[in-house]
Amino acid sequence: MGAPKDRATDRRFADYVHPDAPARPNPATIASFLLARSGEWDTGQPLAPYDSVTYRADRFQPDSVPADVWEQIKPVVNQVVLQAATGPFRAKEMSSLVTQIAWWCHREGLQTDLATILNPDVIDRFAVEGCKHLKEGTGGNYRSKLRRIGQIVIGPPLYPSQLQINRSDVTAPYSDAEVGDIVGWALGRPTTYMRENLEPVLGFGFGAGPSTQEFISAVGTDFVDYGDVLVWNVAIGRPRQVPILKAWESTARSVLARVGDAPIFRPERDSIRRNDLTSFFTNCSKDGAKVPPLTFQRFRVTWLVQHLRMATPPRSLELASGTTIRHIGEYTRFLADPAPEQFRKDMRGA
Number of C-alpha atoms within 13 angstroms, CB side, residue 300? Predict the structure, then answer.
């Protein structure tokens, strides 16, 4: 039996070696190659033709796409890769991904031009409908990557410019106006199924600030109604008790009365899948109505900031949120400054 192959080194060599070279170089060849690349050059290491994005894009040839279809979509695939890829490794990965959505558009009877395959709505539809046969979570991953590509290649107005933020910046809560827009949008969804499943998203998202996993795992028996307060006994992630905010109690109680012991979101389901929420939100948004993107991170931050506004005692907020006051303190930047007179009274203890 020969010496075990260094898989990482073998892959690295295979990415750089000319395609006409032997597919599985022997260890001595790999060693010679790496030694040669480690030398010093007076003006920097030379760039081999096969180290370029252009070379990788031109040489890419998908195995599963019919030849006649590939001839039609190859120009737009190469156009995207040449504009967005930052290196030969990324060019290979990006060629495969862009080919998939371009081929899907072709099968669906859509245009295969740049503006279509990188349209955010088309990408969302592809992630839901075109990735059903793939491993769970792959559609969401493809959606994120394609949208990043769209930001580079298409840009505004389809992809509005995003502010550069420091790593220390934190997620902003929904504004009062945005909360109103979200509630109005949810009430105006065209089907009972959509409205009934958006009700727990709003009632428990704004009322208790859970994580996505905590929300999609919750069932009716996780809640205790004490009459004057409704409490969620969170059982996973950060086990804790979370009293529902008074403003959202009636919404939460309505959901619990309807679902009984079943899951609070899509009570008919018999399993937990994270992409259920993504698919549901996408389906609810197909009419093109404008609404702030729904994320449980922003629901949680909105809930935390609301408690800060109400001056909830720090230790109580730590217990209910499952985090520390040091972390919670990052969100005080979203509070309004008190009036001078109120500031003086607060600090005096009156």
Answer: 19
| Cβ 18 vs Cβ 30: under 8 Å | no
Reference 320, options 248, 249, 239, 255; nearest CA is 239
What b-and-e string marks burial along 105-116, b requiring 16 or more CB atoms within 10 Å of the CB?
bbeeebebebee
- The CB-side HSE value for 259 (13 A sphere, CA atoms) comes to 26
- How far apart are the C-alpha atoms of 328 and 207, rounded to whole Å? 17
Which residues of the chain are under the pLDDT cut of 50? 1-22, 33-34, 37-47, 49, 163-167
Phi first, then psi, for residue 209 (nearest 5°) are: 60, 45
- Cα–Cα distance between 326 and 319 in angstroms, integer? 13
Strand order in the sheet with 230-234: 223-225, 230-234, 240-243
The tens digit of pLDDT for each residue in 61-89 reads: 888 899 999 999 999 998 888 888 766 56
224 backbone dihedrals φ, ψ, rounded to 5°: -125, 125
Give the bridge partners for 225, in sequence order: 230
Is-contact 194 283, C-beta < 8 A?
yes
**Strand 223-225, strand 240-243: pairing:** unpaired
Q: How far is Cα 19 from Cα 22, in angstroms, rounded to an integer?
A: 8
User: Measured between alpha carbons, how far is 36 from 39 in angstroms, rounded to an integer?
Assistant: 6
Strand pairing of 230-234 and 223-225?
antiparallel
Rounded Cα gap, residues 325 and 315, in angstroms: 8
Which conformational region is residue 230 in: left (phi greater than 0), alpha (psi within -120 to 50 degrees), or beta?
A: beta
**62 CB burial (10 A radius; 0-12, 13-18, 19+):** middle
